[in-house]
Amino acid sequence: MVLPEEYVTTTVRLLVALLAGGLVGLERSFNGRPAGFRTHALVCMSSSLLMLLTVYQWNLLVNAPIDTIRVDPTRMAQGLMTGIGFLGAGVIMKERFTIRGLTTAASIWVTASIGILIGMGFYFPALLATVLALGVLSLFRWFERRLPTLTFANLSVHTARRSSLSLDDLREILDYLNCKVSVLSYHLENEGKQIKYEMTLSTRNGDNFDRLAQTLGQVEEIEKFSVMPRNN
Prior knowledge:
The protein has about 230 residues and is an alpha+beta fold. The chain has eight helices and six strands. It is elongated, with a radius of gyration of 27 Å.
C-alpha cells in the first residue's frame, strides 16, 4: 500500500524534529540540566507538529468556504514561541545569589524554533541551527571558561564594635587579595555591640574568594563572616 504524500512528509518531518531536539537535549542531559533529552525532543517535535497543521490546513478544511481560510504560519509560530516562554521560565531557578537555568531556557527556545523550521520543510536552516546550537552549548563552554571575566561575591563580616579591626584594615586585606569593593554598607547589631560590614566584591580570579575565606578565618577580631560567590 502506498501512503499518501502528506503522510510521508509528516512522518519524515516529525522524525527529523525528534532527532534534532534530541541532539540538543543530549548535551543538556550530559551536563545534568533539569530539561534534558526528552524535554527538548518533545518541544521540537510538538513545534513541528503544530506547524504541520498550518501547512496542511487546506487538506483538513476541504469543505470549508475558501473565504474562511486564512493561511498565516507566522501566527502559529508566534503562539508557539509565547508558550515556550512559559516552559523556559520554569527551568530558571534562583539559588540565593546565583541564577541557574538561563542557558537551558535558551536551548528550549532555540529547539522550538528548529521544530518550527522543520515543520515548514526548511531543512537546511533547521540543520544549520541544530549544528550551531550544539556548537554554542558545547564548544562555547570551553571558550567561556577561559575568557577573562569578573567573578562576584557577597561578603558579610561581623566584628566587635570596639575591635581594633577597622574598615581600612578590611579594605587592605581585600586589596591584597585583588578583590575590589563595588557596594558597601555597614550597620550596628546586638544593641550596638557589633558592627556588620556587607559588601559586593569582584575579582578576575574566583580562587581569590577561597583565599579570602582562609585569610578572614585567621583574623581574631572577626567574630563571624560569610563569602557567597554568585553568578551575574
